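Q: Could you write out the predicted structure for this multi-component system? I'm mainly interested in how the pieces pack against one another.
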Amino acid sequence: MAESYDPADVSRAPVDFMAASPYAHLAYDLDLIVLDINWRHEQMTGVARDRVVGRYIYDAFPHNPDDPNGSSEPAVRASIARMVASQEPDTMEPLKHDLLAPDGGFQERYWQVTHSPIYDGANGTGTIVGALQTTRDITADILRLRVTAAQHRAAMVGGQVVLFEMDLETDRIEAPSGFDFLHGMTPQDDRQPLAAYYERIHREDRKQTIALVDRLREAPDGTEGRTDYRIVRPDGTIRWLSASMEVVRGTEGEAARLTGVLIDVTDLHETESNLREALAQRDLLIEEVNHRVKNSLQLVISVLALEAKAARGEEARESLQSAIARIHAISTIHASLYEDGDVSYVALDRYLRRFCRHLETSLGADRRRIALNVDAEEIRLPTSKAITLSLVVNELVTNAFKHAFRDNQPGRIDIVLRQAGNDRVVLEIADNGSGEDAASSEGTGLGTRLIAGSVNQLGGTIRQSSDDGGWTTRIEFPAK
Amino acid sequence: MTLRVLIAEDEFLIALDLESQVEDAGHIVVGVASTQETAIVLAGQEQPDLVLMDLQLAGPSSGIEAAKTIRRAHGIKSVLLSGSLHKLTEGDIAQIEPLAMLSKPVLNTQVKDELDRAAALCQDPAHKN
């Protein structure tokens, strides 16, 4: 059975606090002669106890003669003097004291040093005869801070970027002078109150900026916010600033600080607005051209229509009518352009329905009791292809009307548009008449050449077949 | 029934064509206006059944404004013709209450369809204006 531990038993060997401490400790008298060091101190400095005890501390740890800051001795003596005067521990500002390395060179080191009084009596009685130096190596922290500071400086080149902090209790701003500069103020050592910066913000942006800060004020730790706002400089010029902020709270979750970065983004905003203006200008021009194209097409149609009306012979009138019909086919594409904001593609299914409604009326489908049916899948074609195809549809449907149905017998014409595989489109125009080959009926006519040429331009193939139920024309072509 | 139609179109060849289309459909053209002002004056004088209104009239004048005024002052509705119908705002359309909006180039069959439809409406006195 284990021996039980009796806390009242003072006969036990006392705990060696100095050896157990995670800190480096060194005791010296008021003349800075070392009385003792602990194990951590040996470990931290690499200098053994027997080379230190009994020596003047700056003999044991000489200062770096090349250090531009000089010896740390005056600061150390001042700290000890303060400690003696106050009879309280004194913590020094971070202290630079380089360590002599075995190779004779010096290593850059930074220390956090606290001096606490050593009395000649027990438990803080008697006179102060020395100081216990508690030391922490903060070299890594200082170097990191230095890197951060260098990053700050790099970011602030040209005064374009400023890091800032604000105490959310007092609304005190801590920031380099660039913060004032960016807000169009003369940089001062003390930051202005928050309201003074708000004053500088453009009237239209002020409310949202204040609202964001106030929202962050109430927000939990880590909440971020970003806002762009305009600053009116005293000379009236406007600058755009972009502020990104984050809330950093203390242990109780209270609004401790708002930390952020402020960037002058005027150039970005100007470039953006120039681009937007150029785009608007371009859209306006395109629209103007589009309007003119449509109007000109209208003019062409009107002139031909007037011409047809004035034409003497039946043949001349018919020629002009078919010219008008062909231009109508092209025009219908143009009329449907820009309707859905896409100029380079045409929704072919929608076009076919619209165009066939027109053909029904212009060819007198009702009167002749011929039904025109469109069965089209949703297919978009490049505009130039759609225009070419529109001419083919016009020719084939018109021919079917003219030739497929003998003696005014009723009938139907089916127009089918569908996808064939990934990149191919099939257009089929079929009639149920008993007439002759619709396409070849005009033999050497313009219509035949127009169909052949258009199919060729589409990079497609055409096949015509007939059975008892009429003629079918099948055109297949690549969609792209 | 026979409609009395006012044409507002600043391109005279297009106006001429529209005129013949209206007449071919069996209706009467009571006047051709090329500006906003003339359109409004003629509409007042002639009290047509409808106006074929191009949205971009000559000079600084606007078919949109003409159509609004004619609708408001004389209670006469328009069939709008334009290459840029998308420029019309919802507010414009609410004020104009167009009989139809036809995108240029307008097919002759479209004009005839709209005239037929308007004629059918006019026949029914309950729908007048």
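A: Regarding packing and overall arrangement: The first helix of chain A runs from residue 17 to 20.
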